[in-house]
Design goal:
The complex is a heterotrimer of chains A (276), B (130) and C (229). With 130 residues, chain B is mainly α. Helices cover 63% and strands 3% of the residues of chain B. Chain B folds into two domains: 11-76, Arc Repressor Mutant, subunit A (Orthogonal Bundle), CATH 1.10.10; 80-129. Chain B contains five helices and two strands, in the order αααββαα. In chain C, the strands form two sheets. Chain C has a six-stranded mixed β-sheet, sandwiched between helices. The A-C interface holds A 3, 6, 10, 14, 102-106, 108-109, 111-116, 208, 271-276 and C 45, 48-52, 67-68, 70-71, 74-75, 77, 79-84, 94, 97-100, 122-123.
């Protein structure tokens, strides 16, 4: 167990430089977006109220309050966080392949560590999960800071301030990653983890069988996908027999089964089939 | 210490012969400590197991002896050393005689040739001394 | 003792190993000899579970490969197994973190023996020094068996001499070594046993001293008979 912690730590630190760059980029782009919006609104207020003598009430009636909610839904604001998420998603593949690539074949060392090889699988999975949670936590953490930026530029009379919960509410992608109720949280991350496990298994199939493995991995991936979505197929055949809720739970149960089978299969591949 | 090894002869035998020669010419003195098997293996760049075998054989032949955990020592038995010397001489002569008789040269001529060769060698060494 | 019994391996339709059987004892240096493609590397990788094999059995002191057995054995491939951006001291730290049987004192001793510095970055080592660091990572482990893949290949004569010196030193003492090579002359007098491989088959397995003593043949004489006769 101690070695598992060290493995996760090691894997995390390998991605840390890129991760830090990503987090900084997210903050800078979002801050720039907030600043741009705030200055634009400020100049509009100046133009309307000071130059044309329009009353504050009239302005707010026409334009609404200046609020974070207007920014949170803009595409420039969401772009960096989506980019970061996509980078992490790509890293799901690269976290394995980087060990095989290059002149220095680190996979030898990893496979020879005195740990059960499935621990490599779990440590890499845990690393991905930490990266995702870290990103979400970071986004939540910088929202108040961005809000402060808005407050600095726009006077309080023209502002509608949001609480953190309010901001999360208005932030579509974040709402998905940080749902309000716990059940949704479990379901979203449950499916996410299943996706990572299946992708990892596909990678190991390819790494074990190489050229043939590409087809086998594709087959495995498509098979898993069909399995997880089979309740909907069933629903089509049974012509709406299930409630929407039941369908979701059925899917969730299948995802768990697929995950467990994938872990066992990966364990087998790592112990018996993998090649360096 | 360096030995030019013959690749077709057991290395441990060559090591033993080397020790005998060194003892015979007095380069290694009786009562002297010999290197540990590890040291000798490193010096000669050979397998330590081979040195082990050579030492074991040398011990059996009474060439060296070991007292407890101390380093092995060259025998102090002067008779044994004399024997080694003699056996080396006999070996060399046997070797020489075998080769020379196969050439079918008369005995007198052999002796004469050996005599003159030895004279030549001693003259040369005198010259080198000057 | 590391024991292979009838190990077979295919890659696609091509068979790489055709029933390889041999033993390597603890306290001895066993040398797998064969031209490139004879299956030497595959044998070492099979022992370490780094590539699957089809039939046959591999045991280490009578046990099959497991994380526990893995601690008895250390493999030195012909490529660096640590990250290029690491300095040697980072690599030491990594090994210390993960291996209970990592021997830091010995690591530093070998580093001095090879005249290398802890500050050096792995990516900037010369070919010869890479081979030495590679060797170090394996030798510094308190393992009963050491597997080395072509430690002499493609490096300069002085590095080769330094590496050959390791074999007669206390760094190897009483451990079991399996070394692969296609060039025997560097280590002819250092090995206990030779295993001659050809096309994934063991053609001959012999003790080198015995062949010299009983038959008056050098290792190369025997190789000539096996490969050309």
């Amino acid at each position: 167990m101690k070695l598992f912690g060290k493995l996760v730590n090691f894997e995390f630190r390998r991605f840390l430089p890129i991760y830090i760059i990503l987090l900084i980029a997210v903050f800078l782009i979002q801050a720039a977006d907030v600043a741009f919006y705030a200055f634009m609104m400020k100049s509009e207020i100046t133009e309307a109220v000071v130059k044309h003598g329009i009353s504050k009430e009239r302005f707010l009636l026409d334009n609404g309050y200046v609020s974070m909610s207007n920014i949170l839904s803009s595409s420039t604001f969401t772009l960096p966080i989506v980019m970061a998420a996509v980078t992490i998603f790509i890293y799901i593949l690269f976290i394995w392949y980087r060990d095989w690539l290059g002149k220095n074949t680190f996979i030898y060392r990893l496979l020879m560590l005195p740990v059960k090889r499935i621990q490599l699988f779990f440590s890499k999975g845990a690393t991905i999960l930490i990266l995702v949670f870290g990103l979400v936590a970071y986004q939540v953490a910088i929202l108040p800071a961005l809000h402060v930026l808005l407050k600095l530029i726009i006077p309080v009379d023209y502002r509608a301030d949001l609480s953190i919960q309010g901001m999360i509410e208005n932030f579509y992608y974040l709402k998905f990653l940080l749902p309000e109720n716990f059940i949704d949280f479990v379901i979203n991350y449950g499916f996410g983890i299943t996706l990572v496990i299946v992708l990892f298994t596909m990678i190991l199939i390819e790494r074990s069988y190489r050229f043939r493995g590409i087809f086998m991995a594709a087959f495995y991936g498509i098979g898993s996908l069909i399995l997880v979505f089979s309740p909907y197929i069933l629903q089509g055949i049974m012509k709406g027999y299930f409630y929407e809720n039941e369908l979701l739970w059925l899917q969730f149960a299948i995802a768990i089964v697929v995950s467990i089978l994938s872990v066992f299969f990966s364990n087998h591949l790592l112990n018996r089939k993998i090649r360096v | 210490m360096a030995i030019r090894f013959d690749k077709r002869e057991a290395v441990y035998i060559q090591v033993i012969r080397y020790f005998k020669e060194q003892i015979a010419i007095g380069k290694i003195k009786s009562g002297q400590e010999i290197p540990s098997r590890r040291e000798l293996a490193q010096q000669l760049k050979i397998n330590p197991n081979t040195v082990q075998r050579a030492y074991k054989e040398m011990e059996e032949e009474g060439l060296i002896y070991t007292d407890g955990n101390k380093p092995s020592i060259i025998t102090e038995d002067t008779n044994r050393i004399k024997e080694i010397r003699e056996s080396l001489i006999t070996e060399a002569i046997d070797h020489f005689v075998e080769r020379i008789t196969s050439l079918q040269i008369p005995k007198e001529q052999i002796l004469q040739l050996v005599q003159s060769k030895l004279n030549e060698l001693s003259k040369e060494s005198e010259k080198n001394h000057d | 003792m590391i024991k292979l019994n009838g190990v077979e391996k295919k890659y696609g339709r091509k068979s790489i190993l055709n029933g390889v059987t041999f033993e390597a004892e603890k306290g001895q240096i066993t040398c797998l000899i064969g031209i490139n493609g004879a299956g030497k590397t595959t044998i070492l990788q099979s022992i370490m579970g780094l590539t699957p094999y089809k039939k046959g059995e591999i045991t280490i002191d009578g046990e099959k490969l497991s994380p526990k057995v893995m601690e008895k054995i250390t493999y030195i491939p012909d490529a660096m197994t640590l990250l290029p951006k690491m300095r040697i001291k980072d690599a030491f730290q990594f090994m210390r973190d993960f291996y209970q049987n990592w021997n830091d004192e010995r690591a530093k001793e070998i580093l001095a023996f090879f005249k290398l510095k802890e500050e050096e970055r792995i990516s900037q080592l010369s070919k010869g020094n890479t081979a030495k660091v590679n060797l170090l990572m394996g030798l510094a482990m308190d393992a009963d068996y050491i597997l080395m893949d072509e430690p002499f290949s493609g490096i300069d004569i002085f590095s080769r001499e330094q590496i050959a010196d390791v074999f007669s030193s206390h760094l190897v003492e009483d451990r079991g070594v399996i070394i692969t090579t296609h060039e025997i002359s560097d280590i002819e007098h250092l090995i206990d046993k030779a295993v001659l491989l050809d096309n994934g088959v063991v053609k001959k397995e012999f003790m080198t001293e015995q062949v010299r003593e009983d038959e008056g043949k050098s290792v190369i004489d025997v190789m000539r008979e096996v490969y050309q006769g």
